[in-house]
Give the backbone structure.
Amino acid sequence: MVSFLRKASFLMKIHCCEREFFATSSSLASVQLPSPRETHLWYILPDEVKSASLLNQYLELLSSCEKENVLRMQGDQLKKRALLARALVRTTIARYQINSQFSPRTLKFRKNIHGKPEVDWQQNNDFTPPVLHFNISHTSSLIACGVTLDSPIGIDVEEKHRRTKSNMISFARRYFSPQEVDLLASISDPEIQRCEFLKLWTLKESYVKALGRGFSAAPFKSFTIRYRAATEGGLHLSGNCSSEASEIIVESFDETKNLTSNWHFSLLELAHTHYAAVCVEKDNNIGAIVGEGGPRMKLTAWKTIPFVEDECVTGTDAIATLSCLS
């Protein structure tokens, strides 16, 4: 039967000298559920997926609605990225299921009242599903999916070389708080200023996505991202700081309590090409047991081509923690 990809003329051009990936099994390497305060981050590089056979296999994992959305995209590259994003979510969530009735293809999803996707578990008397939270972000060259247990999560990835068409400070004034604009304006080097803008944007977007209420409920201007020195309790936006001596926090100007400060942040450099931010809700019960502030968030990361290969990149140069905004 002619596949959906062939119907859409969406077969990747593969040179005979290139390595082809053929998935001989639909099995995925299983992974233990994240521990409390742990985040799992899975990412895929679209340019490394060159097999039309593998793309067709990914397409068969999708629901009919997801397939229609993929094929509605204009251009082969947009179709490919949309397909990989949905396949990454499905294969990632399926890795954690102990009960064999769940597979990437049988997973169902829903959206909350604000549009944030969630797993729609089909419960029965024999199985109580884990409270998994996930969030996805992508650029043209990287797609990432974050997973936590019992804690809402938001992630964002941005290409390090991304540039704005308008003046950086003028653009920042439209979206950032006055304190954040002052930080950027104080940076004289245009390249450093651009990088700090991207880091702030990535952190702010991860926070809004973790809240799960939509951007209209949490405008970027309604809160400030800061660093707090752990030893002194002071607040600063820039300066010499380390991940051991400071933490990223959010200060809200919202009096309606739509925004909260009960969140852990991680700011990362991913695959040498992207900034990535992870925002996870704190577990105050754990913090109260361990001590003031609780333990820092643990992050485990994998680079993957589902059904083909998984590489744990934690502790390698493929992922690095960025300790400060400047």
Q: What stands out?
A: The helical segments are 4-7, 52-59, 64-72, 76-94, 168-175, 178-185, 190-211, 284-290.
